[in-house]
Design brief:
With about 55 residues, this protein is mostly beta strands. The chain has no helices and four strands.
Length: about 55
């Protein structure tokens, strides 16, 4: 898959990480809350993350 220059990503453990550069290969991602209220970045997660180790 080609990298998406609109979504930067340094999480190389993700199945959707563009191996040769720090971008995502998805067209879009989903970002969600960790708790019921988010006031800082630590309160959010990329819900599109799937580990490279996860079997399909």
């Amino acid at each position: 898959m080609e990298s998406n220059p609109s979504i930067q990503c340094i999480v190389s453990e993700c199945r959707y990480h563009a191996d040769n550069d720090d971008y995502c290969t998805l067209d879009q991602i989903s970002v969600g809350r960790v708790d019921s209220y988010s006031s800082k970045s630590e309160d959010t997660d990329c819900e599109s993350f799937i580990s490279k180790d996860t079997a399909f």
